[in-house]
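Morning. Coffee machine broken again, so started the prediction first thing and wrote up yesterday's gels while waiting. Chain of 101 residues, entered below exactly as on the submission form.
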Amino acid sequence: MKDKKGEMLSYIETYDTQVKEMKKKEKTQIKNRGNNRKFNVWGKQMKQKAANFWKDESGMGVIEVVLIILVLVGLALIFKTQITNIANSIFESITNQVNSF
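Came back before lunch.
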């Protein structure tokens, strides 16, 4: 009989410690829930702003111009030596024509 009482007391103590740990976890979760709500609200606002920015077409002309400039700069970098040779030959022909007068 005493062994059963000891087992019951041990079981009750284990149960009590488990309940206390669960309560601590629950308090922590409740405490963190407020922080998560703030983050979720902020995340939703940022998501909405990103969606609005993506749908907004008022600046498309500027973006197109920037993309064209980037393509031109890229082509200029790729064909730098050829462009330099052409420019030098044009300046030489202009210099020769000016000297011939």
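The two ends are 129 Å apart (CA to CA). Going to sketch it on the whiteboard this afternoon.
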